[in-house]
Fold:
Amino acid sequence: MSEDTPRIQVSASDSSAVKVVRMERPARHNAMDEAMATTLATTVDRLAQDDDVRCLVLTGVGGVFNTGADLSTFDGDERDEAKLDAIATPLHEAVETLLTAPKPVVTGVNGVVAGGGLGLALAGDIVLASESARFEYAYPKIGLSGDGGATWLLPRLVGRRTAQEIVFLDRGLDAEEAVEAGLATEVVPDDAFDDRLEAVAETLGSGPTKAYAEAKELLARSSTNDLETHLDLEQARIKSLASTGDYEAGLRGFLEKETPTFEGR
Structure:
């Protein structure tokens, strides 16, 4: 297999509750062609539906997260409509899966992220950024508008005015600026990045998975629900968790002042 062949690698934690998906195409800065985008979409969908997977991690290799579509094969005219479709369709499927997966998703932005990769990075429930990470919108550079969910996520994360600045002025943000703006959760030194990514994922992978799933959906719906609707939804979802094993373990641990063992059920 050549260095330029796009690969999506999946590895498991010692507990197997955490699955790490690595985008691997270093010769092209982890840029996506149709095959890579399609494999990514099918991979994250499979893991999102697997009840044994309690935390999903997405990251890149070679000091790069993902730089969007591989433009080296594009023509710069109407012939590229089909090529854009072929990459955007599975890319959007992957972003939607990450945003709606019934388990925590951690994105490890281990370097530059740009273009279509930005939506993938921002789709994490927790976004860790290495010190050398840089977040770039990049579409204006090539005369395009944006995809990968970036124009949906940016206003929700940073507000419309800042989103407009990032989009129209194509303002890149380093890791510290990304955290300050609300794009990332935490900055991690480069030499400690892998360990910190593993530690966060293991913490989430050993947590109350069903409670995380309900909380994730509640947060997602909060921007469109009115207050009364949302309060009713909160009430319904918290009641539904009373029959779970994790609630039983959590309450017992609280009352007995012991750390509970959650099994994700």
Remarks:
- Residues 7-205 form a domain with the 2-enoyl-CoA Hydratase; Chain A, domain 1 fold (CATH 3.90.226.10).
- The CA atoms of residues 20 and 57 lie 5 Å apart.
- The chain has a mean pLDDT of 95.
- Strands lie at 7-12, 18-24, 55-60, 64-66, 105-109, 112-114, 126-130, 134-136, 173-174, 186-188.
